[in-house]
Design a protein that fits this description.
Protein name: CopG family transcriptional regulator
Structural class: mainly alpha
Shape: elongated
Strand content: under 5%
Oligomer: single chain
Order of helices and strands: HHH
Radius of gyration: 21 Å
Largest sheet: none
Helix content: over 70%
Number of strands: 0
Length: 82
């Protein structure tokens, strides 16, 4: 990973302590673990925003499934798995 721009965070003491403990258990620096955590969160948020946009586009295009059909499909899957 290339080095990026430094970022300063103010964390509650308990979060800072836990972050330090987790980093030590993983053999990482606190900064490296914080970078991993922020990177993962950003990627998750980007995926969530894309998924919501895709869902909104489907809804606007009329690509919807009736609630009753969804419930029936879930019941069929549960029955097949039992």
């Amino acid at each position: 990973m290339t080095m990026g721009k430094p970022l300063t965070l103010t964390l509650p003491p308990e979060v800072e302590a836990t972050l330090g403990d987790l980093a030590a258990r993983r053999g990482l620096s606190t900064a490296a673990l914080a970078t991993d955590i922020v990177s993962s969160f950003v990627a998750d948020q980007e995926e969530f925003i894309r998924a919501v946009a895709d869902g909104m586009a489907d809804a606007e295009a009329g690509n919807l499934i009736d609630h009753e059909d969804v419930v029936a499909a879930i019941r069929r899957r549960r029955a097949a798995a039992a």
